[in-house]
Amino acid sequence: MRHRISILACSLALCAVFANSAQAVGTLGARFGASIAKASLDNVQQNFDSANRTGFAGTVFLDLGLGLFSLQPEASYIQKGAKDATTGTVIKLDYIELAALIKAGLPLPTIQPHVFVGLGADYATKNDFTVSNIDFSTKNADWTVPIGVDLKLALGKMALYADARYAIGLTDVSKGTGNVTNLKNRAWILSAGIGTSF
């Protein structure tokens, strides 16, 4: 008898978890935070000591829950680039990023951790720099792979989000001229935000 009650209790608990996740089709939200960028580059004349450039990151996202797995399209503004640790010279590369993530996590009632991987297309909005003889290609997308973790705290129809990711640029955004070549964006992006379920 006790064994049957235990099985029934576990079954009801599982149904409650999945029913809770099924009630919300998705969550629309926004996150804001910091981008800690340090581009990977070839320094032709060994005169650029690459260091972190800290900038702003803001994202609007749609979290489409599918139980254990979910899909999350995003649109972001992210500041990337690099800084010369010796001279303070900054390569400022700012982008609008369109990305889609595949997330895997635990569909728990309140605290929901996820791991994710995705693909993004970055379109340059600024390429401001004070390093001489560097040319950048901004006509095509800078393809990037974001990988990371996030945490969703469900509070009824509202939800709080925390997100930590590493964005790996796949495209050489330099044109192969000047002191810096083979420049590929790399950035840690830390953000938090809020969403509403529908």
The backbone outline, from C-alpha atoms, is: elongated
Mean pLDDT: 82
Number of strands: 11
* Strand order across the largest sheet: 1-4-5-6-7-8-9-11
Contiguous low-pLDDT stretches (5 residues minimum) are 1-23
Strand-residue fraction?
over 45%
* Secondary structure category: mainly beta
Q: End-to-end distance, in Å?
A: 41 Å
Radius of gyration: 21 Å
| Major beta sheet summary | 8 strands, antiparallel, barrel
Word description of this protein:
It is a single chain. This protein has one helix and eleven strands, in the order H-E-E-E-E-E-E-E-E-E-E-E. It is mostly beta strands. The strands form two sheets. Strands 1-4-5-6-7-8-9-11 form an eight-stranded antiparallel barrel. The radius of gyration is 21 Å and the shape is elongated.
Brief summary of the model shown:
Helices cover 11% and strands 64% of the residues. With 198 residues, the chain is mainly beta.
